[in-house]
Description:
The structure is a homodimer.
Chain A: H1 3-10, H2 14-22, H3 28-41, H4 47-54, E1 59-64, H5 70-85, E2 89-94, H6 99-110, E3 116-120, H7 126-133, E4 139-142, E5 151-154, H8 156-169, E6 175-179, H9 185-201, E7 211-213, H10 218-232, E8 237-240, H11 243-255, E9 265-267, E10 284-286, H12 289-304, E11 313-316, E12 319-321
Parallel strand pairs in A: 1-2, 1-3, 3-4, 4-5, 5-11, 6-7, 6-8, 8-9
Antiparallel strand pairs in A: 10-12
Chain A binds a DNA duplex through residues 2-4, 12-19, 21-22, 24-27, 30, 45-55.
Amino acid sequence: MNIGEIAKLAGVSSAAVSRYFNNGYISEEKRETIRKVVEKTGYRPSVQAQMLRTKKTKMIGVILPKIDLGSITSMVSGLLAVLNENGYQLLLANTQNNSEKELEYLSTFNSKQVDGVVFIATIFTAKHRKALKEMTVPVVIAGQRLSGYPCIYHDDYNAVYELTSMFLKKGCRQIGYLGVLPQDKAAGQARFEGYCNAVTDGGLKECRENTLVADFTMESGYEKTEELIRKCGLLDGLICATDEIAIGAIQYFKSQKISVPGDILVAGIGDSALSKVTTPTVTTVHYSFEKSGELAAEMLLNILVGNDCSIREVKLGYSIVENESSRK
Amino acid sequence: MNIGEIAKLAGVSSAAVSRYFNNGYISEEKRETIRKVVEKTGYRPSVQAQMLRTKKTKMIGVILPKIDLGSITSMVSGLLAVLNENGYQLLLANTQNNSEKELEYLSTFNSKQVDGVVFIATIFTAKHRKALKEMTVPVVIAGQRLSGYPCIYHDDYNAVYELTSMFLKKGCRQIGYLGVLPQDKAAGQARFEGYCNAVTDGGLKECRENTLVADFTMESGYEKTEELIRKCGLLDGLICATDEIAIGAIQYFKSQKISVPGDILVAGIGDSALSKVTTPTVTTVHYSFEKSGELAAEMLLNILVGNDCSIREVKLGYSIVENESSRK
DNA sequence: ATAATAAGTGTAATCGGTTTCATATGATAG
DNA sequence: CTATCATATGAAACCGATTACACTTATTAT
């Protein structure tokens, strides 16, 4: 069943049927006859033919490093809400933190498979920059700031700065930090700098000694906390770059009969579901990931309609969620 | 840059270039010249044109009720792994538990937009059956058994039967149950029946009185536990249809100074990340959702290549993860 | 020597729409 | 009474690939 057959049944040309679907000039009377035929046959235009002819796929590619992460699924949820609302579909690519795959999917999506791309990445290399430069479809970066590209990210620096300052105000004088790789500008570098500057501004020194790099897991949080304590002695505060790390840290302290928050205050980042069910519950930073997904989608759609004056860079705020692990 | 221009540059026909990409008859020498031209120009065939001509989109639609749920993202992860491996892309549709949207996306995907659909649903109505009957592209159902359709699901009945039997063996004589809507055949009905039959087989009676229906949240678990205790007095065991409900229940017991597992044993289902970080950690049932995603993808791909003798229905096993909430 | 088969190639039809262009009609303006 | 314009329509070109078909040449079987 194609447009020609419908046209024949309705006694019009295929152009008229096309206009019927695309709000072109068409008389009320033909519109009605076509409507009837379409209804009776259940005809739907072939999206493939439309894509080929119009060069619009109405699809947005989303590249993400890991699907089973609350922050990321929230973003996807926000993306989907806005995209579907506007008649776009979402093509998902999971790179499993594999840098090569990120480049591969960028290239795949670029070859006209989608109208635009939302790129959720953690670490940008020179290769990424090169791949991005070669893109012919618009790309919005989510979760990181990348100069020259439309992007949306969170105020990591100030979030951790404020978190650390809060610990100082509560009397902490030996604050440790468990971070992630600094190549990750957002979760790694910005958060670490927030910690460092807050500590220095608070009149403490040698912040770098009280820090270690972990990965994004609870196990790593546990191990690195042990290492940190062995290295620095007992601290009175510990800021962690993610909730998972913080929970691992708390588990270590529990195993050592070190009281949280009695002996040491602990905080994480992300406001994950986990942070609300542990004992003690974990003080953390809330980012609105769903909102950032929605905004990323809106930015991309704006670019697609050629709205050159639209928002091109967004830094989203945060709110500190004080839970039991820092109540003093 | 289209196939014709490449053909001209290589001094061959467009058919030859097409054959170059599709492993058709072509001499080694032409293959080489085409390869060079393709490399130099960076040409890639238009997927839209290919789709139109071949009637294959190499895309699979995935319809899911909620993206921010560990079990579902694990499935998606498994789906993606297998689909991408085989050159397929994943088109994501999130229905937010909206039955109308489920039907709408089924219909959208059906109109030749994808080669096949993976449908992750919770409740099947008559409308769903009708919509499924009208599908012209193959559909694999995940998370539920639906007679007549390729499907993949977990052994909910026996999982809960075994969990309940374990509680009985530990001496429980008053086991309560917090379930979800029985319209959900898998998480609702099958789990509930597993509980009922285990209780009856264990020589206890009146199982139905000790049960209530909650929804999938911790809050609901908290409230319904309160209601259940008010109704039935103190139980000595509580089986919950999900980990979230179980955690809500434990929070209620904590608030009432009722000891878990001292006074009452509690278990959930799903082996979520949450169940591992609470105090006490929650006894639960592990399902391999990632594997079910992989299998669903494999089933669908098999159907697509016309392998009629392939697996059409899979019931996956489970393992009980005994944690602190039931250690007696 | 001849028939049959396999390998290699190009032409042109095809997939199913959208859109340009030419054309027609009726209404309004000058 | 013509010129202009908005509305309405269909024919045909076009998007960019795949593939059926016809054809040539080389190889093998009879």
